[in-house]
Amino acid sequence: MGTSAAALKVAKTIPMQHRRGEIPLFDFGRIVRRLPALGAVVSGIAVAAVSATAGAGTAQAAPPGIAYCSSVPVGSRVQVECTNTDVGAATAGMAGLCTNLRILYRQAERMRGESTIAWSEECGPGAHPILWNAWAETDYHRSFDDD
Question: Which residue from 80, 84, 121 is spatially nearest to 103, judged by alpha carbons?
Answer without folding.
Answer: 121
